[in-house]
Amino acid sequence: MPQEEGTQKDTVTRSNEIARMVGGDIARRAANRTPQKLAFIAPEQDEELTFEAFNRRVNRAAHAFQEEGLESGDRLAIVGGNSLQFLTAYFGALKTGIVFTPINPEITSEDIGYELDHSEADALLVDDVLYPKVEPLVADRDIDVLATITVGDEDSPVPSFDEVIDGQSPTEPAVEIHDEDLAQIMYTSGTTSRPKGVLLSHKAITTGSLNVSASGDLTRNDVTSCVMPLFHCAQLTMVKGAMHVSATTVVRRSFDPDGFLEDVEQRDLTWSFMLPAMYNGLLARPDIEDRDLSSLRYCLYAMAPIGNETLERAIETFDADFALGSGQTEAYPPTCIYHPEWQLEKEGNYWGHAAANTDIAIMDDDGTLLDRGEVGEIVYRGPNVMDGYLKNEEATEEAFAHGWFHSGDMGFFDEDGLLKFVDRKKDIIKSGGENVSTQKVESTLLDHPAVEELAVVGIPHERWGEAVTAFVIPAEGADADTEDIREYASEHLAGFESPKAVEFVEELPKTATGKIQKFQLAEHEADYYQEQVDD
Amino acid sequence: MPQEEGTQKDTVTRSNEIARMVGGDIARRAANRTPQKLAFIAPEQDEELTFEAFNRRVNRAAHAFQEEGLESGDRLAIVGGNSLQFLTAYFGALKTGIVFTPINPEITSEDIGYELDHSEADALLVDDVLYPKVEPLVADRDIDVLATITVGDEDSPVPSFDEVIDGQSPTEPAVEIHDEDLAQIMYTSGTTSRPKGVLLSHKAITTGSLNVSASGDLTRNDVTSCVMPLFHCAQLTMVKGAMHVSATTVVRRSFDPDGFLEDVEQRDLTWSFMLPAMYNGLLARPDIEDRDLSSLRYCLYAMAPIGNETLERAIETFDADFALGSGQTEAYPPTCIYHPEWQLEKEGNYWGHAAANTDIAIMDDDGTLLDRGEVGEIVYRGPNVMDGYLKNEEATEEAFAHGWFHSGDMGFFDEDGLLKFVDRKKDIIKSGGENVSTQKVESTLLDHPAVEELAVVGIPHERWGEAVTAFVIPAEGADADTEDIREYASEHLAGFESPKAVEFVEELPKTATGKIQKFQLAEHEADYYQEQVDD
């Protein structure tokens, strides 16, 4: 039967204002839903904010940004660790259509400069303690340092964030924002040495964070942790996930075992999100059996698996459900959850089930979707998928080949329909939640006169997930030792990028045509850090 | 600073296929996530379907619809009660962009005809037992009866739904569908006698149903009920809510106390959604204390409050959390949940807190948003809000005045931030989950010679929520009694529209200008049905 002209569209009459799905609404809705409930507790900042107070502060930030001349589509970069101000600025940007561009403060000044240039940052917020690091970068760039976030007692010529937003109106800013508008640019490293700017829409960040309650067992009665870095997509989505359901979040600058236990005992923390090494660190404390951990009920971990033996001890000690969450900046997390009921049932790096708003499939190199049991590249679809890479059409096209987002991770679905990670397709190491290009590390180390040839691989490590590890054939006659090379690397690379170990070897495994077989090396040395611990 | 040309849009390169948020994906994602898990159990149909089997069947239906010539934007009407075929057809339509148009089978033939005409239905599915009712309607219309759904043993010249989809391909149909495309037309009555066609986009039905897990405590481990009618938005959203998280749903044709208890005892039902009267009916059973209700943990009720005394008994007997869910077709449910932790804390018709994806505010007649404590119209925003009313610009404009959707319900937020329903703004009665226009009932009854003047109001009733109740000044010399008038009404109106009681009165409360004060009547007679029960 014939299609009526315009049947689908001519009937749509509601305004965008009514029916949109944009990030800033998460803060406003939580404030309207539960104005007097505690949204954030920041023990180190000695501050507690209700959802209403937080939203009013967010609105003040929004008006301050507008007063500084920032408009929808402009980019606001931030170089800072966790703070209430970070979150305030984030939602202030989302509410005004300003594109929030967090920069990892641990990367080198050169890389910060690159990300400022590449994102065409219009304005910058920076922690006061990091101001000296960014000052030389902004001096010769057309970037306005809007404010410093006071977390230390560093003097700077720039007013503090609190001063800048003080006195602004707490009313909702009126800005037209659409679901598909750009909300965030987040940088992530690829196989080449330059990080890529991941473009995330309001729809992507909203539907990604809705996965937290739908698939991560988070409810309105939870008190959640925020000890992972907010400049990373994982912690940022967890905070939004909590706000969707009006759960409270305890914000700390970073993980600190004493602080975490204090939050559990004194603030009844129920739902935590941390790295395996952090849970391990707590388990290793002599006082852990004497602490009152009864409030804790759900412990999400990420970036790396926890061995079943340790896990069993953790479940018993914390008397909580454990679950592994996965995701990546390009497919706004969480994309899969390895649910508590499956933990201990399997061995290895299981990622579990797809979250509510996410499709996961396995694809071969020709773009054919594979059946259960077959190993291939893990590919994603879903409203939480990025728009593309900023100013990088080639990488974007490659990432979206065959109509799916290509993760660069290899895996398969097992007989129970659970996703298992097998390997990384490309030369990327996931170190401390950040992508590290092995090519970048290798080219840096090759500049050292004692290095003749080398291979950099990621090896399982309880703190880093994968530890950057360099196997080096030393140059003939060179008198440098491995420690000299590590030191050299740490001068030229960020902490998470630097090799955690440098090993001298006589030869590297190669193919007949002379290509280094990194996969063989990684497999052979899989227990490298495990053995060191046992020693 | 100047806005770069096209900053927001030119970077978007992912395809719609990758990042869409459309209804049919809910079925596909659940099948990919948990292929072997039970999606639906239909005890009366003696059938169980895994998520994979269901999705394959949905795809077969999609291909069958396409083979019949239906295209994206065409309207598929369905006149039927709950069945696996209803759900199969629903998702089959969603996957092909065909607009699903469920029609309440209890309304009069004339009204069914009106909805078929008004929606310009291209094709129809009908329960075999209802075929005789629709046959005369389709005879003189250009509507193709695609299939009958076999739920009885009624003969019809039309092939069965199962036959029609049998042999079709179980593969995913390839149809381009966008978030904002029309997914459903659902009819709801307004103050005038003709029902209005509510236009719901894929985004609206998806974000509405995501509210079920985010705010209705539904998880992947639940087994949920489906005893409320699927042609109504409430049950339809609950089924999608369950599928988002791969929870199992037990589908019954309608509520049947023995069947429900069987589902709890034999199928470990954990999460139910029913009317207060249904829970009350169960409570009143002599065998209820001897039944094993231990699986049940969360009981959602809707349409009307449950008195605290009954509620206390229900919570104890079922040993479960109770919560009230609200919503309406125009703001795809659930829009608010009166959570378990608040039950028994308050008295009266509380609707509780806004769900995750919904804004709720209180507005006065001039469009000003009111403060806490002030009574006004309940208005909504959110991605779950409808697009408008089909072919009714005037009603659409009125509904979206001042940039919010106007519910027609009056209420306020109390000191704890909880929404309390106060009154209906317009002459609409919500009877058994359906809107009833008092004007329609009044004009029907006025045709009866014994009726001189009357007022029809809604009065609290445990089965109907609000019972349609007629207060009639009899015509002088008429010898008909109230029972004659009730009978006359039920011949001309659907069951839910007919007065549950007709009372003869000598006069009606009126204003000085002679307008009947229905509000006063409703308030004065609030205990009308309560008193009857006590008698």
Automatic annotation (TrEMBL), chains A, B:
Tell me the GO molecular function terms. Answer: medium-chain fatty acid-CoA ligase activity
Which controlled-vocabulary keywords does the entry list? Ligase
Give one Pfam hit by family name.
AMP-binding
Q: Does the keyword Ligase apply?
A: yes
What positions does the domain AMP-binding enzyme C-terminal occupy?
A: 440-515
PANTHER family in alphabetical order = ACYL-COA SYNTHETASE, MEDIUM-CHAIN ACYL-COA LIGASE ACSF2, MITOCHONDRIAL
What family does this chain come from, according to its entry? Belongs to the ATP-dependent AMP-binding enzyme family.
Name-wise, this protein is Long-chain acyl-CoA synthetase
Q: Which organism is it from?
A: Halorientalis persicus
Question: Top-down, what is the taxonomic lineage of the species of origin?
Answer: Archaea, Methanobacteriati, Methanobacteriota, Stenosarchaea group, Halobacteria
